[in-house]
Write a structure and sequence with these properties.
Elements: E1 3-8, E2 12-20, E3 26-35, H1 42-45, H2 50-69, E4 74-79, H3 81-85, H4 89-100, E5 103-106, H5 109-121, E6 130-135, E7 140-146, E8 149-156, H6 160-167, H7 175-193, E9 204-207, H8 209-219, H9 226-229, E10 233-235, H10 236-247, H11 251-254, H12 268-281, E11 286-290, H13 294-309, H14 313-323
Parallel strand pairs: 1-4, 4-5, 6-9, 9-11
Antiparallel strand pairs: 1-2, 2-3, 6-7, 7-8, 10-11
Helix pairs in contact: 5-13, 6-7, 6-12, 7-12, 8-12, 10-12
Length: 324
């Protein structure tokens, strides 16, 4: 039976319904994503705003209906940076669980990083270490691992919503604002990436809205096509060029850029800055965009949990014989 994962992030609320094949590959049956900005204002106030909660709950109502229609065997909701930081975050987790019937989990930055790596690295050749970068709304996760396991992971308090609200106040942003944004991001990331194993990295896989939006912009995708985004390689120089061009545009013009969802226009400049700084600090020359992220990692984990809790027919029969 299908399984469902809902990612309730700082910037967007997403749904993945799928199954896991015998080879461990996730087969997607349905994917949805809506920008809900749950983390709006959290960096300044420390609380979830009623308007942001209402936006998110409207989307969760829709997702709950889709999960029911697909007769999912289990549905897990992940709540991340914005909810971790909010004083009323725990109450929101309980509300999500009780109102929408989801197995709601408030996960740490470390758990977020490891689940993201699992989803992005699944079915890849990990002979050489691979870096996975997840630029989210409230935090950014960087994980490095190989076939032996995770070698390094950090979660940073820099995200597209948090950094946009903190630094970008003019439309378009001023040169001083952009410089302050870059300096803040670089300082925060440098403090945690100083001991990252950079030698011999095979490259970087970047997941989430910033990376996939850049891949779509460069290909001028309209409508968005995840098959063309998956695996698309973006050089660091091209990433920086796109970031500079978008930063010069007023928001209304940015909303019309082909390949960029209008709802991501307010935060894309901060996202590109974060991703570019992370790549630079890891001494990497670019990234590969991927749609496989924390939702895929969670769906794989959920599949394994259910398999472990449901013994096979052979195991049950052998136990019956032993007991009789």
């Amino acid at each position: 039976m299908p399984l469902a994962v809902v990612d309730i992030g700082t910037n967007s609320t997403r749904l993945l319904i799928g199954t896991v094949g015998p080879d461990g590959t996730v087969v997607e049956l349905l994917r949805r994503s809506q920008v809900t900005r749950l983390g709006e204002g959290v960096d300044a106030t420390g609380r979830l705003s009623p308007a942001a909660v209402a936006r998110t709950e409207r989307v969760l109502e829709e997702y709950s209906s889709l999960i029911a229609a697909h007769r999912c065997a289990a549905a897990r909701a992940l709540l991340t940076s914005a909810v971790r930081d909010a004083a009323d975050g725990e109450a929101f987790v309980r509300r999500v669980e009780s109102r929408f019937g989801l197995d709601a989990r408030l996960i740490s930055g470390e758990e977020e990083a490891l689940l993201t790596f699992r989803g992005a690295a699944a079915n890849r050749d990990l002979t050489a270490p691979l870096a996975v970068i997840d630029v989210g709304g409230g935090s950014t996760e960087v994980v490095i691992g190989n076939r032996e396991g995770v070698l390094f992971h950090r979660s940073f308090q820099v995200g597209v919503v948090r950094m946009s609200e903190r630094h970008l106040h003019h439309d378009p942003p001023t040169a001083e604002e952009l410089a302050a944004l870059q300096a803040d991001v670089r300082k925060t990331l440098a403090q945690g990436l100083g001991d990252a194993p950079k030698a011999g990295l095979a490259g970087a896989v970047a997941v989430a809205g910033t990376a996939t939006s850049v891949a779509a912009i460069l290909q001028r995708l309209d409508p968005y096509d995840p098959r063309k985004v998956e695996g698309y390689k973006v050089p660091l120089a091209e990433l920086k060029r796109i970031g500079e061009e978008l930063a010069k545009l007023p928001l209304q013009r940015r909303r019309t850029v082909v390949g960029l969802h209008p709802d991501r226009a307010p935060t894309i400049v901060a996202g590109i800055t974060i991703l570019a700084e992370a790549l630079g600090l890891l001494s990497l020359s670019g990234f590969e965009a991927s749609e496989r992220d924390i939702m895929h990692g969670t769906l794989l984990m959920l599949h394994e949990e259910r398999a472990a809790a449901q013994p096979s027919i052979e195991h049950s029969f052998s136990r019956f014989k032993a007991e009789t």
